[in-house]
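CHAIN AND CONFORMATION:
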Amino acid sequence: MFLSNRPLSIKKIKNITGKESKEIKAIIKNLQSEYQEHNRPFFIQEVAKGFSFATKPDYAEWIKKMYNNEKKYVLSKSSIETLAIIAYNQPVTRLEIEKIRGVNCSSILLNLLKNDFIKVSGRKKVPGNPLLYRVTERFLLHFGLKSISDLPPIDQLGLGDEENQITKIFSETRD
């Protein structure tokens, strides 16, 4: 896990170590407790359907200095809105997204595809067979989610109109 640049699933750890899933989960839980008990600057997080090491937020200042030259992908408000629509309605077509947003989103979809935040997951069985889109593990990583089910129910947020709900949800999740 320490050497991997992406979260490792229990299945992947099992394939690497030969240990049983139950034992792997127990080891991870013990390590998480030990790191917390000894106030380590790092922890094991469950994210994007797997486990990975992460640094505590208290150390963010030093980590930023260390990685300040690396390019960071910044999502625009329209990209966040489009991602939220896809996340809450997946699988969804471009036309369905545009109906909700009220504007053309072809270029946004291309950028999100290029940067691996979304993927094509098939075609809808309607005239024209439009592409269906879903969010990816990179989306989960970017927003610190274990799975798509960690998104708050949109109808329980009470944030006003849909556009403001979407922007607020993902801005708070990322912070």
Observations:
- Helices lie at 10-17, 21-37, 60-66, 77-89, 94-101, 106-114, 137-143, 162-174.
- Residues 2 and 53 are 6 Å apart (CA to CA).
- The longest strand covers residues 42-47.
- DSSP finds eight helices and four strands in the chain.
